[in-house]
Amino acid sequence: MFRFHQAQLATAVILCCGIAHAQSPIVGKLVDDVQLRGVEDVHLVGEFAFLPCREGTRLTICSIADPTAPTVVSSFTHDRLGPVAGLAVDGDTAYITSQGNHRLYVLDVADKSDIHLLGSVMIGDPDVKGILYKVAYRDGYCFVAHQAAKKLYVVDVYDPRQPKVVADAVVTTEDDGPFSVLLRDDYAYVGTLFGKRNRLAVVDLEHPTNPRLKTDLLDPAISQLSGEVIDDLYYCVCWDRNAFLVFDLRNPGEPKLVARLIDERLGEPNRCAIAGDRAYLPMVKGNGIAVVDIADPLAPRFVKTFVDPVMKKTYGVAVREQWLFVGSREGNSLVVIDRRILHQN
Fold first, then answer.
1. Which among 226, 112, 221 has a CA at the least distance from the CA of 179?
2. Rounded CA gap, 227 and 210, in Å?
3. CB neighbour list of residue 69: distance below 8 Å, 6 or more residues apart
4. Whole-model pTM over 0.85
5. pLDDT tens readout for residues 222-249
6. How far apart are the first and last CA of the chain?
C-alpha cells in the first residue's frame, strides 16, 4: 500500500506574500546522474519501479513504497552491457536488451537489492549492424525487436541460464525496422521506425516457435508505435508525427485505426499511459507531460501540458492510482506527479 504525506495533498493552491500560486503537482522526485542516466522507460512491479537506462547502460530499481520519496534500491550493469532499451519482467526474472552488442540478458531480481546475471544470448547475426529495441515476455518466451535485421526474434528462456533463439519472423522488407512489441491474444503487434513509411505489423504467435507475419497496417501517422491496450483498444503514440492513435483490436488479427489526434502541442510524445478517461504522454520535445482526453476514444482531445526543468526530455511513464511516474532521459530523473493536483491546475 502506498503511503503519502497528507500535507502535500491538503490544497492545490498556496498563498505567498498575498499572491496565489498553483501548487506544483510534483510530489516526489529522484535525480541521479549515474544510476538514472538516460531513463528509457518506467515499469511498475509491486512497490518498485524498474528503470532501464539507455545512456547509463544499466537497469536501476527504485522503491516507490512512498511515492513522495522514491529511492534507488539497486542498479545492475556489466562490462559487456551496452545501452539498455528494452525490459520485460516476469516474477523474479527480468529481461533486458543491449543495443550495441545485440544481446538479451536474463537477470535474477528476486532480491531487489542484489540483482544477479543469469545468462545472455546473441540475437541475430553479429555482423548485422543495428539496434535491439523492445522486448516482451510470455509463457517462457521473449519476443525481441531487431531494427536492422527487420525481424521479431523468439527466444526460449525456460532455462534462464541458457536462453536460446528458436525462431524469427520478418516484419518488413522496406527501409523501416521493428521497434515496439506488444502482445495480445495470439499476436504480437510490432511498430516500426526509421522508414519512409512505417507500419503496425501483426505477427501470429499461436505457435511461438513458428511465428509468421499475418498482416500489416500502413498510415502516414504511424511511426515507432508505443502504448498500451485497454479493453479492445490500443492507445499509442508516434513521436516524430506528434500523433496519438487509437486502434480497434476486437478482431485481433486485423487491427483497425479508428482515431487519431495530430497536434504539435503533444511535444513529440513517445510513450503512453492510460488512467480512466485520460492519456498521459511524456514529451521528448517540451520537458513534461501532455494530457489527452479519451472519454470518447474515437475523438481524442488535447487537454493541457505540464512542464518542469527536472523533466528534461521525458521518455518513460507509468500510472497507478493517483500517481504518475515519469522518467526523464536527459534529466536523469524519476518524478512522481499527483494527477489530482495536475487536473486542478
1. 226
2. 26
3. 28
4. yes
5. 999 999 999 999 999 999 999 999 999 9
6. 27
